[in-house]
Amino acid sequence: MSGSIRIDRRTTIKWMLAATAALPAMQSSALSAELLPPAKGYGTDPDLLRIYAPGDLWPLIFTDANKRTATALCDAIIPADAGSPSASAVGVVDFLDEWISAPYVPQQQDRMLILAGLDWLDDEASRRFGHEFADCSVSEQSAICDAICYVPTAEPQFAEAAVFFARFRDLTVGGFYTTPEGMRDIGYVGNVALAQFDGPPAEVLERVGLRGKAS
Predict the structure, then answer these.
(1) Is 205 inside a domain boundary?
(2) Statement: residue 62 has pLDDT above 90
(3) pLDDT at residue 5 greater than cutoff 80
(4) Which residues contact 74 (CB under 8 A, 6 or more apart)?
(5) 1, part of any domain
(6) What SS3 state is found at 37?
(7) Nearest CA among 166, 210, 171, 9 for reference residue 91
(8) Helix, strand, coil: what percent of the chain each, to 5?
(9) Percent of the chain having pLDDT more than 90?
(10) Does residue 64 sit within a domain?
(11) What is the pLDDT of the chain when averaged over all its residues?
(12) pLDDT tens-digit readout, 7-46
């Protein structure tokens, strides 16, 4: 990232697919966060015929300050453009809150990482610019994110923050591109009922060497 924090959507997909499968949790005191006690048990199975609202299944953890910082970072990663809305506009912040609040071990590990990272962003923004990350200009946000946007090249003092950014970016991209708006943005046309099906298009059959062959 250089010059602008606004990231090309196709680039975010490539980042998501190339992301490290497992990232270590941050342990630095500079990135410490107070965590809620882990939930006791997973509870009962949800009613699959019911539409659940955020917080119906388990208490949500994000504070208003967390949501504000998360919204700013989500929209820095996937801003609105001519083709679709921003990440926060389609509920990605709510998705993140649900994710880190869940009583499962992987989500509890992400909880520590995300909460600590959001605190770090505000601390770093205040140190550099005298205000929180959400109040930063695009160029100020870019200056911070440029330092943490890629784990292998992050300077030692930003190494742990880069781990946070990588995981936050993966969750943001995954949340966005599984919404109807996100799927339309990449041209996904699956899961749509067809009035009729006339078989694969001729160009597809030709590509796989089946054009003109009996089925």
Answers:
(1) no
(2) yes
(3) no
(4) 86, 87, 88, 92, 93, 96, 172
(5) no
(6) coil
(7) 171
(8) 55, 0, 45
(9) 57
(10) yes
(11) 84
(12) 555 555 555 555 444 344 444 444 444 455 555 566 677 7
Closest CA to 148 of 67, 198, 73, 63: 73
* Residue 195 domain-assigned (yes or no): no
Is 92 within 8 Å of 172 (Cβ atoms)? yes
The total number of residues shown for the chain amounts to 215
* Coil, helix or strand at residue 45: coil
The residues, ordered by sequence, that sit 6+ positions from 64 with a Cβ below 8 Å of its Cβ are none
Domain that holds residue 147: 9-189
Instruction: Give Dmax (Cα) for the chain.
Output: 71
Sign, CA dihedral 90-136-127-3, equals: positive
The number of folded domains in the chain is: 1
Long-range contacts of 21-24 (CB under 8 A, 24+ apart): 23/113, 23/151, 23/163, 23/166, 23/167, 24/163
The DSSP H or E segment spanning 97 is: helix 92-101
With 60 as the cut, is the pLDDT of residue 93 above it?
Answer: yes
Question: What pLDDT shows up at residue 155?
Answer: 96
Q: What span, in angstroms and rounded, lies between the C-alpha atoms of 75 and 82?
A: 14
CA end-to-end span of the chain = 50
Residue 158 has pLDDT above 80, yes or no: yes
Q: What per-residue confidence (pLDDT) applies to 193?
A: 83
CA distance 5 to 64: 23
